[in-house]
What does this fold into?
Amino acid sequence: IGLSSTVSLRDLLKTLLRVRLAKTETQSDWVARPLSDAQIEYAEDDVRNSVNLMLKIMERADRLGRREWIADEMTYYDNASIYEERDPDAEMPRVRGSGALTHQQRNVLRALGAWRERSARRRNLPRNFVLSDDAIVSLTKRLPKTADDIKPMKGLPEKSLQRNRAKIWEAIERGINGDLPELSLGRLNGIQPDDGYEARVDLALAFVKGTCLAAKIDPQLIGNRAEISALVLDAERADPERHRVLRGWRADFCGNALLALMKGEGAVRVNPKDGFPEAK
It folds into this structure.
């Protein structure tokens, strides 16, 4: 409906309802009991306008002809399995800024991401408190040759490095050796990128971004770089079960056209009226 996929509740209320949430209790100790009256009031503010917010969102969706899109999207959250704790080894971690990776680099990123996920769960910490995306990307793209070669960096301060050096190196070695199970969806294992892969990824990302911007949709709602890259790599055998961009409203909006483009069955051009790329 023309908003960022990561818009905060505070900004959503301000934009759609012109309601401003106070920040008075953002630094409160929410573990302590009993909660203060101010904390309770602050918590109630998070849900006080929920119904009106929902109505405003649906009003905008109706105006854009996207009510069915929202209904389709919400069915995903009815699936109990998505709330189950998953095996970190069975998924490609979401790491910002990873860009194009070689097969070995992808395995190292997977191994580091899996170690980070397990550590975060065990210590009940946000993932980036254990090892930041920036640090994972740096370690992946500039592989150390020994554990001692791992130096403090952005997202991996000295104290954290000293505590986790052995485990980080163990994960890197695991990735280098390819000691990882095949991804559960088989999206990235078993198919080697060819010489045109990176160029096709760039084309696919540009097509998705242009199509989304023309419709005032955040491209991240269609798929992140890893998801689009996986579809490009898997184009000849891609199906909706393995790729969400080929399911529901995403498929109708641009997923089917993107797949046709990647299989050489479609074309893309620049719309002379608005300057955005579009399927032809």
